[in-house]
């Protein structure tokens, strides 16, 4: 049997450059894909990312027979026998992780659970939804709507329940 014919490059390859990852806006990537353009170089966006206006000088992609670079750099292969893969954090993810960790470590937390009989609430919800089906088809009230209303009312009645720890004081 003869070897299989080479596959055509994936459309997502329009957003890649041979030298590595290219930072471009989603609109620039989409336009490059539609116009069959290769993204590369320094753009006019934040930190040099490419914007759709930067595509005027973009070179066309290589011929269909050429092998295109992948749209995103692949993650490093795990070591033999490793059960996990370490993925580097972006700056934004790193900041979010640090802040969430700090919040969990420095702000007092507590959990509260309660059992509530909501049979009357469910009956009221059913009646409201039946009425709404006639007046506003497609509109429905969920159990969550009742919970949000109850929490908002409780926060007005008991403002200490919605207090925030602020290092040197409690904000109410």
UniProtKB/TrEMBL annotation:
GO terms for molecular function: dihydrolipoyllysine-residue acetyltransferase activity. Residues 86-168 form the 2-oxoacid dehydrogenase acyltransferase catalytic domain. InterPro entries: 2-oxoacid_DH_actylTfrase, CAT-like_dom_sf, E2/Pdx1. One of its GO terms (biological process) is pyruvate decarboxylation to acetyl-CoA. GO terms for cellular component: pyruvate dehydrogenase complex. Pfam families: 2-oxoacid_dh. Gene3D superfamilies: Chloramphenicol acetyltransferase-like domain. It comes from the Eukaryota. This is Dihydrolipoyllysine-residue acetyltransferase component of pyruvate dehydrogenase complex, mitochondrial-like. The gene is LOC106128586.
């Amino acid at each position: 049997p003869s070897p299989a014919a080479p596959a055509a490059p994936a459309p997502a390859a329009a957003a890649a450059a041979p030298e590595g990852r290219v930072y471009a806006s989603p609109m620039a990537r989409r336009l490059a894909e539609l116009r069959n353009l290769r993204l590369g170089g320094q753009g006019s966006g934040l930190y040099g990312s490419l914007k759709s206006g930067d595509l005027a000088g973009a070179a066309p992609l290589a011929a269909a027979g050429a092998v295109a670079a992948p749209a995103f750099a692949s993650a490093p292969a795990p070591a033999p026998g490793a059960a996990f893969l370490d993925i580097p954090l972006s700056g934004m993810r790193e900041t979010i992780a640090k802040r969430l960790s700090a919040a969990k470590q420095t702000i007092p937390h507590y959990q509260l659970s309660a059992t509530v009989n909501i049979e009357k609430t469910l009956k009221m919800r059913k009646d409201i939804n039946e009425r709404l089906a006639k007046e506003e088809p497609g509109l429905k009230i969920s159990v969550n709507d009742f919970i949000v209303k109850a929490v908002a009312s409780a926060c007005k009645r008991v403002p200490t329940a919605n207090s925030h720890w602020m290092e040197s004081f409690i904000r109410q």
